[in-house]
Design goal:
The chain has helices spanning 3-22, 32-51, 55-81, 99-122. The protein has four helices and no strands.
Length: 129
């Protein structure tokens, strides 16, 4: 990694937090302990993802599971809605996206993920409030 890239990333990281603090309504009541803990957690997770040899494999496996869920949702959408749910969202112009892409491609995936979350919440896998 180049040193300039690291410096640029660190400046952006701290500048983002400084801007969030600057635009807050009541700067005096900011609880710094959770902010610093979150920043340290971010750095720790970054080190694990960049330096740990097996972390990449774990996240690639999770990515594969999510890709399988997305493919199953797209196949189910294509089955239910026919050609509207098929992979026809691409427009000849790369800057244009058809409105049917949102309705028949993205929203079914949101529905499946929310149903899965509700099921995991019901089974008490996900914590409640």
């Amino acid at each position: 990694m180049e040193a300039g890239f690291v410096v640029h990333s660190l400046v952006g990281f701290f500048l983002l937090h400084a801007v969030a603090w600057a635009v807050s309504e009541d700067r005096r009541t900011v609880a710094w302990r959770p902010v610093i803990a979150g920043m340290l957690l971010t750095f720790g997770l970054g080190l694990v993802l960049l330096k740990a040899p097996y972390a990449k494999d774990v996240f690639l496996a999770l990515n594969g599971a999510l890709n399988a869920l997305e493919k199953a949702t797209q196949d189910g959408t294509a089955f239910v809605f026919g050609f509207l749910g098929a992979d026809r969202c691409r427009s000849p112009k790369p800057t244009r996206v058809r409105a049917s892409c949102l309705a028949f491609r993205a929203l079914p995936l949101v529905l499946v993920v929310s149903a899965l979350s509700a099921l995991l919440f019901h089974w008490r896998v996900l914590p409640g409030s």
